């Protein structure tokens, strides 16, 4: 990593230019493969740091296009303290039509900036980092929100693209065993593709494709929403009468009446109550935030106790600090392995006069 280098005091010559490296998706995948537990611990630690206020995580900026209303590119600037100490920006596109064209919906880069100089020192492929931090956050949520009850052994996935696959991988790596795995997607191709992935896993459990969200919700104790729904499509609180743990990763699937009958945990209150997420709709409906039990960091710190006589819903907005923490971990590991691809002469103009 770059450091603030003084001028050569004898000659007055400028210090050497800071370096800039590019880290490919292949390198990111190689570093993170098999490190799921470490990544979950890193994400939990980052939530703690954020909860203690040792971070800056301003609102995300949504770039939208009048001519392409289903698409967007989001900027997530952030700064994380603790032992990570890095600033930066995630720049992530969501183009849902990509899926029909055979490429993933989301693509992203992550820029890491040096704490001391502000110089960017790396650009990382970040769709993998984003999926990993989302999955690690979901696994951490599932763990902390199901403590105090029998760990669910029936899991259901509603919306089964890349994010659902990563969440399943991280749950399994986090020690979850499933007797039953329910799958529901509006696209039968996606459902079949996800089942094909499940069949490659060790002891996947019985796999069932559900034709309706209702049948899946009623059958499962741990439910993952990872759709691209723009507004609520699940309205009936009676589906949740068995008090499941719900990882509401796609944020806009559940109608306010479902949240109003549940214990609601978010990752960051200000972030989550924006952009017409389901928690935001509840706030608009009720005019208050009384329906929120607290944040995952507060649950982890024992400041919020989870009631198990009602559904528990985790709605994580997805914080830029998580991308930075995972990205810096990848960067350090690539450096340690001697694989850093530095772009020669990237910062070229180093003289003021
Ligand atoms: N909260 C976070 O931190 C976070 C981070 C990353 C991604 N996400 C969200 O996760 C979601 C999934 O991302 P992805 O990359 O896997 O997308 P994807 O396009 O690969 O898959 C989404 C799947 O959902 C299905 N679907 C859409 N509407 C549905 C509905 N009403 N019922 C059932 N299935 C439905 C689609 O057919 C598709 O197969 C997105 O909404 C994304 O914004 C959240």
Structural write-up:
With 353 residues, the protein is of the alpha/beta class. The chain is 32% helix and 21% strand. Helix 1 packs parallel to helix 3 (127-145). The longest helix has 19 residues, at 127-145. The protein is globular. The mean pLDDT is 95. Bound molecules: nicotinamide-adenine-dinucleotide. Nicotinamide-adenine-dinucleotide is lined by residues 96, 99, 105-106, 130, 134, 158-164, 184-187, 190, 226-229, 233, 249-251, 316-318. Residues 96, 99, 105-106, 130, 134, 158-164, 184-187, 190, 226-229, 233, 249-251, 316-318 line the site of nicotinamide-adenine-dinucleotide.
Task: List the defining traits of the structure above.
353 residues, alpha/beta, 8-stranded parallel beta sheet, 7-stranded mixed beta sheet, 11 helices, globular, binds nicotinamide-adenine-dinucleotide
SSE order and pairing:
Blueprint: E1 21-23, H1 25-32, H2 36-51, E2 55-56, E3 61-64, E4 72-80, E5 86-94, E6 106-113, E7 120-125, H3 127-145, E8 154-158, H4 162-173, E9 180-184, H5 188-199, E10 206-209, H6 213-219, E11 222-225, E12 245-248, H7 256-260, E13 263-266, H8 269-272, H9 278-286, E14 292-295, H10 296-300, E15 312-315, H11 320-336
Parallel strand pairs: 1-7, 8-9, 8-11, 9-10, 11-12, 12-15, 13-14, 13-15
Antiparallel strand pairs: 2-4, 3-4, 4-5, 5-6, 6-7
Helix pairs in contact: 1-3, 2-3, 2-11, 3-4, 3-11
The structure holds nicotinamide-adenine-dinucleotide.
């Amino acid at each position: 990593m770059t450091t603030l280098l003084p001028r050569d005091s004898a000659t007055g010559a400028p210090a050497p230019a800071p370096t800039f490296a590019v880290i490919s998706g292949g390198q990111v995948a190689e570093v993170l493969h098999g490190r799921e537990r470490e990544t979950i611990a890193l994400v939990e630690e980052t939530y703690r740091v954020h909860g203690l206020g040792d971070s800056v995580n301003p609102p995300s900026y949504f770039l939208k296009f009048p001519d392409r209303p289903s698409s967007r590119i989001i900027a997530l600037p952030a700064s994380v303290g603790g032992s990570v100490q890095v600033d930066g920006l995630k720049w992530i596109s969501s183009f849902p039509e990509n899926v029909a064209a055979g490429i993933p919906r989301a693509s992203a880069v992550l820029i890491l900036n040096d704490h001391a100089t502000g110089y960017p020192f790396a650009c990382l492929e970040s769709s993998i980092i984003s999926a990993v931090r989302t999955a690690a956050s979901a696994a951490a949520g599932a763990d902390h929100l199901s403590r105090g009850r029998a760990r669910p052994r029936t899991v259901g996935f509603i919306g089964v693209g890349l994010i659902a696959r990563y969440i399943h991988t991280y749950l399994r790596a986090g020690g979850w065993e499933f007797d039953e795995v329910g799958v529901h997607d509006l696209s039968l191709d996606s459902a079949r593709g996800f089942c094909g992935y499940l069949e490659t896993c060790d002891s996947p459990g019985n796999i069932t494709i559900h034709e309706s969200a209702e049948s899946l919700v009623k059958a499962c104790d741990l439910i993952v929403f990872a759709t691209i729904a723009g507004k609520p499509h699940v309205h009936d609180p009676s589906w949740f009468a068995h008090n499941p743990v719900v990882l509401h990763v796609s944020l806009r699937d559940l109608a306010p009446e479902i949240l109003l009958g549940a214990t609601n945990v978010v990752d960051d209150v200000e972030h989550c109550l924006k952009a017409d997420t389901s928690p935001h709709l509840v706030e608009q409906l009720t005019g208050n935030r009384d329906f929120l039990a607290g944040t995952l960091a507060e649950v982890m710190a024992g400041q919020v106790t989870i009631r198990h006589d009602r559904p528990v819903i985790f709605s994580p907005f997805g914080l830029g600090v998580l991308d930075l923490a995972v990205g810096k971990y990848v960067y350090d590991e690539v450096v340690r392995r001697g694989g850093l691809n530095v772009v020669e002469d990237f910062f070229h103009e180093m003289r003021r006069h």
